[in-house]
Each structure stands twice: as C-alpha cells, then as structure tokens.
Amino acid sequence: MVRFFDAAGNVVYKIPKIGLRIKDLDQIPYVFAIAGGQSKAQAIQAYMQHAPKQTWLITDAGAAQSILMG
Description:
This protein is α+β, with helices and mostly antiparallel strands. It has one domain (2-69). It is 27% helix and 24% strand. It is built from two helices and four strands, in the order βββαβα. The strands form two sheets. A two-stranded antiparallel ribbon has the order 1-2. Strand 3 (31-34), helix 1 and strand 4 form a beta-alpha-beta unit. The longest helix has 10 residues, at 41-50. The radius of gyration is 12 Å and the shape is globular. The mean pLDDT is 90.
C-alpha cells in the first residue's frame, strides 16, 4: 500500500501496490527518500516527520528552499 500524507502527517490517500510497507523500513539499514519540486515541500516534510532515523532525503533546490524557509 502506497500512502500519501498531508502537512500534518495524516494519511490522505492509499494505493494498493507491490512494495515495502512503512513498518518494513525499520529493518533496512539505509532508506533513501527521493522527491523534488517546490510543490512537494509539504509532502516531504510530512513524510520526514515519520520517517525512520536512517532515512536520507534526496531533493532539489526548489523543495529544499521551501522547506527551509517554512
């Protein structure tokens, strides 16, 4: 199940898919979250609030600036 989050970290949409579940990520030593674009900044922040501590975020300047500027 793929989950989409709102700015508060609440799941707003689910899609059935083959893949990993969020709870599976705790067992993986390095998790890479990849997302870009200024329009994705709120979604990135929402996910990162709940991401496992071993998550590395890869993003672009537009998303990064939006996140840092609040």
